[in-house]
Each structure stands twice: as C-alpha cells, then as structure tokens.
Amino acid sequence: MDRIRAAIVGGSGYGGGELLRLLAAHPFVEVVEVTAQRAAGKPVHAIHENLLGTSDLVFTDRAPPALAREVDVLFFALPHGEAAGRMREVFDAAPPVRVIDLSGDFRLRDPEAWAAAYGKPHPAPDLLASFVYGCPEAAREEVRAARRVANPGCFATGAILALLPLARSGRLEGRVAVNGVTGSSGSGTDPKPGTHHPERAADFRAYRPLVHQHVPEIEAALRAAGARGLSLAMVPHSGPFVRGIFTTAYFFPASPLSSPEVAALYRATCEGEPFLRLRSETPRVGVVCGTNYGDLSFAVSADGRTVVCLSAIDNLVKGMAGQAIQNLNLMFGLEETAGLRAPGMHP
Ligand SMILES: NC(=O)c1ccc[n+]([C@@H]2O[C@H](COP(=O)([O-])OP(=O)(O)OC[C@H]3O[C@@H](n4cnc5c(N)ncnc54)[C@H](OP(=O)(O)O)[C@@H]3O)[C@@H](O)[C@H]2O)c1
C-alpha cells in the first residue's frame, strides 16, 4: 500500500519529538513535513538530538492550510489555544484531510464547558462537535469512523484508564477522588519556574487542586462509558521525574464490592486490549516509559467500601504521541498496534 503522508504542526516540542521518534518506526506512515515557530529553518536533529541519523527533515514555517492540501493526516502539537483558531482554514482548504489534535482545544463538545475549563470563549465553537474524543479503549468505533480526533490529555488518559473498568460496569457513581502525579515533561519544552530542574528535581507539590482543565473531559469519557452522576475531585501533582503519570483514584461504592468482583471487571476491560496490562502488583511508571502501555491495578478494602484504582502511563506516549498514532491506525484501518510495538526499558 502507499504510505500515509503525515505532517506535524508544532514539531519542535516534546509531543512533536515523540511523534517523529515513533513514526520513524511506523511501517505505513511517512512524515513529509514538520513545522515549528522559533526552530523553523533548523534540522530536526538540531532540536531532537535523539533523531540524529533518523530524520533528515528541516523544520518549516508553512501555514497549516497549505500543508493540509498535500497530506493525508495533519497532527497538531501546538500549545493550548493555538490550534483552535487555525482549524477552520484547514478544513476549508482541504475538507478530506484527517486531523489529530494533541491539545485541549477540541476535547469538549460543549462550548460553555470549554470556556469554563479554559477561562476564555472557544474561537470556533461550531467545530467542537465535529471532533471525536480519541481514547480508543473507551470509544474505539467512534475513532475508527472519525476524520477529526481530539487526543485526550495526559492526566485524563491516566484517570480514564484507571477507572474505565468500574465505569463500564455501571458501578461508578458519585464523587471519586483522583490524584495524578506527572513528570516534568508534562509542561512542554519551555522552562518555567515550576519545571526548572533545581526547583523540581527534589520537590513534590500539588497544582490546580480541584480545578484542573482535564476534569471535564475525564467526566465526559467515563459517563459515556457508563458512570452515573460522576463528580471528580482531582488533585494533580508534580513529581521529581521526567516522564510518566501515576494515577491513584479512590472510589467509595454505595454497596460493597468484593475484590474478586473488581478483578473480574478489570480482566474484562483489559482482555483483548493491545495496550492495557493488568498488573497484580502496583503499576510502575518506570516500566511503561517509552511505550504506549497503560498498566493498571486495583485494591479493595476488607469491607468492600473502598476501591483504589491505579494506572501508570508515559505522558508523552500513551498520554500523547503514542495514543495519537493508535488513533491514526484506527482512522486509516491499520493494525491498531502498527509502529507501537517496541517494549519499554528496565531499569
Ligand atoms: N507534554 C505532555 O505531556 C502533553 C501530553 C498531552 C498533551 N499535551 C498537549 O500537547 C500539545 C503540545 O505539547 P508539548 O509538550 O509538545 O508542547 P511544547 O514542548 O511546548 O511544544 C510546542 C510546539 O508548538 C510550537 N509553537 C508554539 N507556539 C506556536 C505558534 N504560535 N505557531 C506555531 N508553532 C508554535 C513550538 O515551536 P517552537 O518551539 O519552535 O517555537 C513547539 O514546536 C500542548 O497543547 C499540550 O498541552 C502535552
């Protein structure tokens, strides 16, 4: 078959770098162009040094509509708010092009919910409903049929995967507490006071407690999967590592759940899923790093009144570029795992 022609808008960041690294090993996709702002004109390997000898592309600064006419699929890996205003021109220029957006710009269908989460009105509210929320484990058939995919957020991916078995069973309801701990690559390439190494390397802190912008997309995805009356209390944390998100979710069921019952729900959800692994011990960010796996596990209290749901992902892979490629594979009718089979590292 002809290779799928892909371009990346905003490829000099961490998301763009991971797309380039993973797609270099994809059997059916060729990245034909990659854009950047400040890095325009530089070779890709000048920014992503790990790609020296792998990519001979040079960052361009061409506008997305011009790119869209020449490719089959366009990845957007821009900071939040940068893709939304550019999307209409892209679809006007090349209506059939497929788009996968890594930012939060199209993850919510309701413009008012989006404005509440992101603190400003959406620049193209009428386009929101044309995007499918691309979490394959929760909505595989919708992704398969989609031309426009909003890739889930990294905290959102960790929380959705951890709680999906309970949501699917219809048992997940009411208030659920979620702690997510992310590595420093979660906030992109530009150094900020909270991500600067001396400030972060030996520290641990919470940020945006109860008001993180990923909460509405998590609630929406879990409700669509079967959760009822769900309300998340989420506290994100910055951990002293580079890659990975570890999620701990606490659910207090109205009627007790036994450990074998919960085990059966997790087994049913993970069965046949190429990227979900049910662990008998705690998941570990160290062993999913570099991979598209979401490792899951759970614990149930002796009285059945507390269920703790755990997940570990690589925020840059399953939480971003790997999941985007998984979505591409589904959208183009490819094997879902194409280009994503490399195992992780240990230690
Ligand atoms: N990091 C994560 O763990 C993660 C996970 C899931 C989703 N996301 C989301 O994915 C998106 C990309 O994240 P990231 O971590 O890769 O960000 P990043 O490292 O900050 O990279 C941003 C990219 O966008 C380019 N850019 C910035 N402003 C631009 C503009 N006005 N016009 C054109 N290009 C522009 C930058 O180019 P120059 O540097 O050359 O100027 C760079 O290539 C964000 O929306 C982020 O929220 C991130």
The overall strand count is 13
Q: What is the element string, with H for helices and E for strands?
A: EHEHHEHEHEHEHEHEHEEHEHEEH
State the end-to-end distance.
Answer: 38 Å
Overall form? globular
**Average of pLDDT:** 97
Largest sheet: 7 strands, mixed
Q: So how many helices? A: 12
Output the radius of gyration.
Answer: 19 Å
Bound molecules: NADP nicotinamide-adenine-dinucleotide phosphate
Number of domains: 2
Spatial arrangement of strands, main beta sheet: 8-9-7-10-13-12-11
CATH superfamily of the largest domain: Dihydrodipicolinate Reductase, domain 2
What fold name stands as the CATH topology of the largest domain? Answer: Dihydrodipicolinate Reductase, domain 2
- The share of residues in helices is 25-40%
SS-derived structural category: alpha/beta
Determine the strand fraction and express it as a percent band.
Answer: 15-25%
Instruction: Using the 3D structure, state the CATH architecture of the largest domain.
Output: 2-Layer Sandwich
The poorly predicted ranges are none
CATH class of the largest domain: Alpha Beta
